[in-house]
Amino acid sequence: MALIPERFRDVHDVSSMLGALDAVVGGRTSARFAVMPADLDQAALSTDRTWHWDEWRVLLGDPYLALAVGRPESDQGAAGLPLDAPSVHDAPVLFVTIYGGCCILSSAAGSGVFRRLHQTFLREEYPSVGRGFLDTSMVFEVLEGVAADNCCSGFVVRGCSYRAPIDAAAEDGAWESDRKWTQRTLENASLYLAETKGWVRRIGFSFDWDEGEAGFCEAAGSLGRDAVVTATSAVPVVWEQVVLRSAAILSQEKETLQGRDRGNSYEFPLRPLKIRYGEPVFRDVAAAKFLVRQLRKLPDSSLSVYHGNPYLHVSLVDHLDGSSFAVWVVDAEEITILPGARASASAFGRLIGHVLDQFREGELIAHD
Amino acid sequence: MTEERQAKLDQLAKAKHIEIDNYQSTVQAIFAFAHAALWDPNTDDFVPDSLVAIGPKLKTSKENAVCPSNAVTPDIVVGIGGKWGSVAEVKRTIPRNPDHWGDDLQKQMRKYDDSLSGWPQTQQPLPSHCLTVLVHHTRKVDVVDYLSEHIEAGDLQFERDFAVVAFQRARDLEEQISLERCYGRLTDPELDEELRRVLTIKLDYLITRYQLHFYDSPPPLPYMMAVIWNEVLPSLITVAQYKESREKKRSPHVVVTDDAIARDLQSRLTRCLPPAGQNCRTIPRKQWVRDALEELVRQGHGKKTESGSYDIEYRSFTDAQGRFVRKLADSQLPRDRKPRKTAQPQKQMALFDPDM
Questions:
Q1: Are A276 and A362 in contact (CB under 8 A)?
Q2: Residue from the list A272, A311, A324 with its beta carbon closest to the beta carbon of B203
């Protein structure tokens, strides 16, 4: 697999990626980023690793080509463009870089192509790289961090898509989705979601950023609970303020999720995780049934119901890497997840992210 | 499939699910009892020098009234600090007719009313141990009446303390197991008083501390198969195999032996118990694992190799246990008779063949 040109192999730093991305974005002002917890390092990405580039090309079709982070030589133009690409805009280049404990994909590709690149990358690298997930509090933590910066002014929530229980008192857990275009402050948006008991799926934002002598620029974009960031203006500012903050939070989350597997003979201690709701969500057995229905929707997994009523005990196997979990509901206010012999951080994250989004959002508690 | 057969199949599958539920609730009751006896809530740890052994093999003395100098395997034994212990049997279901309880209750408990040796911790007899019968609360009145009657009549006597403890699952906002000493007494006065007043233990407490899968009784076959399928096989397949199977759209294969799986499951069960009982690895028994693997092969999920191991094709099911239950139930129902082909009415032969 010698498709990665030699000149791109020795670049490991984020600033060079940004420079390269800037060159690719060129006249365009938008870029997309996917932040994912990872157990890879930059050296492995750029040199030792065998990447299935051929498959990617087949999968995505020419002129799409994904390349590792690379510094363009000054007279070579944009980084990593396939030679047969008619123009910069026709060749979505995927930059892959490592920041902290995360792997970040960056591209100027449109949303459809980016989603495919993201999914293909995940399938290729799982479980070394897992799907990122941010709950509502994490999304607000990232954005509040931006809004609180001295250089930031006029932070506005432009849009918000969310899910909320159909009826706040409903006991079967079913929800509905909604999307609002707003001009709210962050605080106001947070209060609104709390009132509806809703959880964020994506928040659109804009803010002014003081660049010192260069003056102010308006940054805009959106942040989703899948840790995918869209920057529609001032890409470097969004990168630094939103993408990197998200990566820092996901790195902490990865610490919580990893090292919980037990070994074939259970030689490692049991370290369960709980999702706590703070109210008796499972008072009615219909909620447990709804949870089972939602768990069955987790792609590439299988579910076995050991016990369904009155308490819930199911076994879930992740068919991407063989991780297994026991999911119990023996308390009306919480879900307990017990890791099995193999339980990768990526599989844990995939399961918990799915439950928090597809069933109902709760607080993740490590029960060590 | 005819409607009648479908109805019978549903009924049989439901009965098997109930059997699994009974088995699981019995396991939960056993661990609840062990937890009540050995857990110190003040230190949030086991009482020092305590032991729990599920299905240990103990030896009776020469003087044993029922089976002298023989091996016995009670469902569970607990021992505290080498001072006292309890030998317990669990009766989740007992025959409706008390005439059949002689073997079940009397004979079995009298076997344990002896100076038993081979305790996992000491190998020597404990200075004292009591006898405990765990029964489901729906049978406690019948059992207590039966025992009182026989003890008062003098045809049943125990030298050691003897107690009946009733268990049941209870649900408020949390799932709980309640234990009530409803007859006799336990040797430890504190535990006896706690159980007399009815002790409830959160199920959450048990699931995060113990492996609540098996006790010393063969599990229902589909349950054993599901535990192997969901909790053992997935981690025996490498990540590379999973990846390759996705690329080639073929299920991964794993070759296993009954011995290796039994050993893994035995280690898992005993690791959550106090160290003193950890050398007592007998549950699940190899035969249970072998039966489950044979049934997996019979249901078409793999084949037995010449060396005696099992080559299992690990497919993805939406509900593995439900599938195993239905397949087993289906094999246990007599086949529908195929409707006999009705003979085609033969044309009446012409009296005179026109071709002739």
A1: yes
A2: A311
Phi, psi of A305 (to 5 degrees): -95, 110
The CA distance from B132 to the nearest CA of chain A, in Å, is: 28
Residues 303-332 of A with CB under 8 A from B: 303-307, 310-311, 315, 317-324, 326, 328, 330-332
CB spacing of B234 vs A320 below 8 angstroms: no
* The total number of residues written for chain B in this structure: 356
Nearest CA in chain B to A342: B235
β-strands B310-313, A363-366 pairing: unpaired
Which of A129, A16, A124 shows the shortest CA–CA distance to A80?
A16
Task: Return the number of other C-beta atoms located less than 10 Å from residue A113's C-beta.
Answer: 16
Distance, C-alpha A126 to centroid of its chain: 14
Q: SS3 for B50-115, per residue? A: EEEEECCCEECCCCCCCCCCCEECCCEEEEECCCEEEEEEEECCCCCCHHHHHHHHHHHHHHHCCC
User: CA of A174: how far to CAs of A86, A171, A282, B223, in Å?
Assistant: 48, 8, 12, 31
Nearest Cα to Cα of residue B270 among B348, B340, B215, B203 = B215
User: By the 8 A CB rule, do B160 and B128 touch?
Assistant: yes
Q: What is the DSSP letter of A245?
A: H
d(C-alpha B87, C-alpha B158), whole Å: 13
**Which residue of A123, A270, A302 is in closest CB contact with B316?**
A302
Contact A179/B at CB under 8 A: no
Q: List the single residue in B with minimal CA-CA distance to A318.
A: B234
CB nearest to A322's CB, from B235, B321, B322: B235
What is the C-alpha to C-alpha distance for residues B135 and B256, in angstroms, rounded to an integer?
37
State whether B173 and A331 contact (CB < 8 Å): yes
d(CA A237, CA A218): 9
Query: Using an 8 Å Cβ cutoff, are B167 and B134 in contact?
Result: yes
Give, for all 368 residues of chain A, the pLDDT tens digit: 233 333 333 334 445 555 555 655 554 567 899 999 998 765 555 443 444 443 343 333 333 344 433 323 323 333 333 434 434 444 456 677 777 788 888 887 778 878 877 887 888 788 989 999 999 999 999 999 999 999 999 999 999 999 998 865 565 668 889 998 888 999 999 999 999 889 999 999 999 999 888 888 999 999 999 999 999 988 888 988 999 899 999 999 999 999 999 988 888 888 999 999 999 999 888 899 999 999 999 999 999 999 988 899 999 999 999 999 999 999 999 999 999 999 999 999 999 999 999 999 999 999 77
Q: Please state the φ and ψ torsions of residue B30, each to the nearest 5 degrees.
A: -60, -45
Which residues in A lie closer than 8 A to residue B174 (C-beta atoms)?
330-332
Alpha-carbon distance of B164 to B107, in angstroms, equals 15
Residues of A whose CB is below 8 A from B271:
265-267
Out of B174, B232, B320, name the one closest to residue A330 (CB).
B174
**CA of B210: which chain A residue's CA is closest?**
A270
Helix (H) or strand (E) holding B235: helix B233-236
- A60 in Cβ contact with A113 (< 8 Å): yes
Which residues of chain B neighbour A321 with C-beta distances below 8 Å? 239, 242
Give the Cα separation of B175 and B168 in Å (integer): 11
ipTM for the complex? Answer: 0.88
Distance CA(B278)–CA(B52), nearest Å, equals 8
Contacts of residue A342 in chain B, CB cutoff 8 Å? 234-235
This prediction's pTM: 0.86
